Amino acid sequence: MFALPDVFPITDPTWIMCCVLCLILGAPLLFERLRVPPLVGMVLAGVLVGPYGLGILERDDSFGIFGQVGLYYIMFTAGLSMDTTALKSHRLQVVSFGLLSFGIPFLMGYGASFWLLGMSEAASILIACILASHTMVAFSIASRYGLAHHRGVTLSVVATMISLVLSLFILAALSASFEGDSGVMSWLLIVLKCGIYTTLVLIVYPKVIRFVFRRLSDDVLQYIFVMCMVLLSAAVCDSLGLEGVLGAFLAGLVFNRYIPDVAPLMKHIDFVGNALFIPYFLIGVGMLIDVRLLVAGSDALVVTAVIVVVALVSKCLAAVVMSSLFRLDSNCRGMMMGLTSAHAAGGLAIVMVGRRLLLPSGEPLVDEMLLNAVIMLILFSCVFSAYVTSSAARRISLNEVSDDEQTGVEDKMLVALSRSESMCNLITAAILMRPHRSNTPLVGVRLVVDDVGNERELSAARQMVNDAAVVAASASVNLKKVVRSSVNPITGLSHLMKDFETSEILMGYHLTGGKAAKSFGNITSEMLATISRQIIILHTIRPLNTIRRIHVVVPFRADKEVGFVRWLNHVLRLGRQLDCLIVFYCDEMVWQLINERRAQHYAKVKTQCHLFRDYNQVAALRQYVNSDHMIVLIAARAGSPSYHPYMQKIPAVVANYFNDNSVMIIYPDQYGLEKRISAFNTGLK
Fold first, then answer.
1. In angstroms, rounded to a whole number, what is the distance separating the alpha carbons of residues 650 and 522?
2. Is 179 exposed, middle or buried (0-12, 13-18, 19+ CB in 10 A)?
3. pLDDT tens, residue by residue, 420-449
4. To pair with 275 at 20 to 30 A between CA atoms, which of 108, 364, 424, 567?
């Protein structure tokens, strides 16, 4: 186009950063009015200010660094947000779409290059590798719509990695043939390296993550640790001759288990990525695009048109074939088309390798015309991908709202805060057990004994609820802050539950040691006599995101309790967010009801059942419980259908047998609230 004189391009780092931030701020606002997806807006903004546009900015080292991290961020968040349960249960579909997404574009790309464009066999293979691979540029669109766990998204994420890895394998063999090797040993070597590295990451990373997360509670330090592990994985993978995005994706897949969707750390990861790294990457991609090449000549236009059309048609064809084979609906097909049609980093990496491969004449395998065609492919495919993904995401959001999100009155939880060291885990537990997409605020309460001269205690209490509100806000959850003085804490909590119309109370308590257990027993008896709503008592030993299994002890006739569905919803939500197995110890009838509820509303939660009828044998379960497991004891009030006298001994049992474990004790609703139909109308998800 043209360049502005004298002042431009900007070279001062401060002005460069200021200009990029203005683009990140202004481009979405401008292009949203034009009904252009923000992702496309970022790419077009890069075209406008780049060296082939107004020439305001050059693509300097900052775009290389931040852009590379942005690409890794995209693949990391794709692995982090992947529905691993669906991945395991739909293995055939995952592998099938991965092979289709690679095979159809590869064959069509090779045929179009070799027969239509008259390219050499080596150049045709290179073009086929570019068209077979793709980049999940539009993943952030699906994520913003809350569809990261949608089947179409899961299939597309895995297809991205399968197609990229297979393309890199073929590229390695092609490079080896130019160096005089037969290519067979090079092929076997890269397969071996990929297998060994993947195995090491899946074995070593979980141990390191659990070790660090148990000792780091600060969100900032946790985020820095996560980024270190992601970049380390990408760097090692890249140094082995594999693409760094594969390492970033593997890191995300491992962290998937330890960072729940609603956790504050996940919000920090999304915020930093969407605010800086990913936009930087998209703007940098736009700066590579020279729109003048479209009118540079008929040959360039023909090559560009063929490559763009074949790339988009072949990826869409793969999604159509996949949906026909497995009878997927049109929304899922549209999502797969959108997510797998964009070409960016993978195509650039492959074409740059082609620039380094020299023909016998000394010319590079990829000439300027072919390089420019790939650059134009990036522009058109990113625009197409963003539009199709946005359209599919809107249709899914409007038409596929599940029954458990169309519920009536939902839970409103009061969190009783007492100790600063347990505050963070209490708030996190409350967030993990909330219905999905709930707007109901938590109520954070700190009671202080009403006495003369308690100003210091009141000041400390205010600081504690402020800290709790910060933890909740970091997960985008509103928390009402309440500090009250009360002569009797139990009576004070009862009054507060009525004042704020809460359906349950979550409190922490130190359950180890003889005196603590005895004191806990006395307080519990008084609470049960005063409060008829659900009471959850949580004692944590380790951060909740490091829990690997949940053991739930359910008494006989627990299904006869009014609050049966409410506590079951909470436990299933907790297992879903922590992505861990839930083992229920209950009788056949209760297990049938639990399994029906899980299948209807929480099908992705992994559960097992051990038949269990005698509540006296709770202590015997110690042999099945490891230090990184949580035990959930469902108790009952005296006189209720599921009450067992042994429940009076729960504090002592916990102190003697489960003092190394995180423990949750739940006393279900006894009567519920008036003018409420039942706990079955509680928000489920």
1. 12
2. exposed
3. 888 888 999 999 998 876 778 899 999 887
4. 424
pLDDT digits over 358-411, tens only? 777 777 777 777 877 887 888 788 889 888 988 888 888 766 544 443 333 457
Model pLDDT for residues 270-329, shown as the tens digit of each residue: 888 888 888 888 888 788 777 776 666 677 788 888 999 999 999 999 999 999 998 888
Q: What is the DSSP letter of 116?
A: I
Instruction: Name the average pLDDT for the chain.
Output: 82
- Residue 670 to residue 1: CA distance in whole angstroms: 73
Which sign does the torsion angle of CA 604, 610, 616, 620 carry?
A: negative
Q: How far apart are CA 46 and CA 338, in angstroms?
A: 21
Q: What whole-number distance in Å separates Cα of residue 528 and Cα of residue 636?
A: 9
Give the span between the Cα atoms of 136 and 281, in whole angstroms: 12
Residue 340: closest CA among 133, 106, 170: 133
- CA gap 210, 208 in Å, rounded: 6
- What's the angle, vertex CA 348, arms to CA 312 and CA 100, rounded to 5? 40
Q: Using alpha carbons, select from 371, 495, 502 the residue that is nearest to residue 434.
A: 502
Structure tokens at 369: 């015309």
Cα separation, 39 vs 379, in Å, equals: 11
For residues 417 and 453, the answer to whether their CB atoms sit within 8 Å is no
What does the alpha-carbon distance between residue 247 and residue 234 come to, in Å, rounded to a whole number? 4
Give the type of residue at 144. Answer: R
Q: How many CB atoms lie within 10 A of CB 261?
A: 19
DSSP 8-state symbol, 617: G
* Residue 326: partners with Cβ closer than 8 Å, 6 or more residues away: 93, 96
Convert 539-570 into a string of H (helix), E (strand) and C (coil): ECCCCHHHCCEEEEECCCCHHHCCCHHHHHHH
pLDDT for 191-207, tens place per residue?
788 788 888 998 999 99
Residue 369's Cβ-count burial label (10 Å; 0-12, 13-18, 19+) is middle
With cut-offs at 50, 70 and 90, classify the pLDDT of residue 94. confident
